[in-house]
Amino acid sequence: MSEHTSATTATGINMYDVRPTAEVPAESPLAWSYHHTGHPGVSQRSRVVIRERALLGHVVLRGGAIVLDEAVRQVLGFGLPARPNTLSQDPSGERSAQWLSPDEWLVIVPGGEEFSLEAKLREALGDAHYAIVNVSGGQTLLELEGEAATELLMKSTPYDVHPAGFPVGKGVTTVFAKSNLILRRPAEDRWELVLRRSFADYLYRWLLDASQEYAIGVDD
Amino acid sequence: MLHIYCPYCEELREEEEFHPKGQAHITRPADPDACSDEEWGDYLFFRDNPRGIHHEMWVHAIGCRKFFNVTRNTVTYEILETYPMGEQPHFTAEYPEGKPADQLNDAQQEPSRQEGVHV
Fold this sequence. Notes:
The complex is a heterodimer. Chain A is built from five helices and 13 strands. In chain A, strand 10 and strand 11 (179-187) form a beta hairpin. Chain A is 24% helix and 32% strand. Chain B has one domain: Folate-binding superfamily (Folate-binding fold), CATH 3.30.2270.10. Chain B has one helix at 37-45; strands spanning 3-6, 11-14, 19-23, 53-59, 67-73, 79-84. The longest helix of chain B is centred in the middle third of the chain and has 9 residues, at 37-45. Chains A and B meet through strand 10 of A and strand 2 of B. Chain B: It holds the Pfam family SoxD. Chain B: Residues 88-119 are annotated as: Disordered.
């Protein structure tokens, strides 16, 4: 195996790049849904637009907040969110870290960066007590925009998505259409849904069905 | 539907996100080999079923996935308090209005929640 597809850290942990080169064809968890269910285009009437951000790097960090925060700050340039149910991002909004539980965070980076991120974090963490898991293959991210986005969310989740209760920078794991997902609001007019791949088709079809009245469009 | 306060998420969430996990504050016998069959059987199988104040474990299954404790009134379904693992309740059968201030002393130590890893 070539050098950049696998590596061993100083502390003896073997790492493998699950998607070593771009030539290997990869499909988003929704590829089949697009083929089978279709994807209505965005029109003038569309009050909700969804867009998949496929094949991003999703990494779950577990361990003590102080130790992980220092390492993340060193590698990514911004710290972990300090409060429960919040999100921190770099200025471009391309990289983010979200609180999932008192000892667990989800870091999302552009696709392809996750392997080097993991290596750098492991190097920064040294002998600390922690776990890093690359879960990129297990989930996907959907962006939701448009004036009716909140209405669509209100149909789907019991969580209060009113702007007063869900300010920008918040992110929660909650019930969504009898399944569950991570719901977050990185910007004033944009919501993000982090779905498990096994629920992706179901939730995609749910979203299309629930927002038919808003003339939903799927942005490619 | 109950609205339950998760002490780790620090906010009220829908009951749908939680699962009850039975009686709280059950300690495993320190030396199982020294237990009589009756003691071990009590530990494994026998649970309290009080009328009134009861301490239970709940898990925030769709959320932070942490276990925590709930003091609940089994007659009115009222949830009197929720508190993280390792802490003691303020409301008990002896003190249904909450323990007086002098009872809340020493044993109340705040676990290192931000650190996550208990030392």
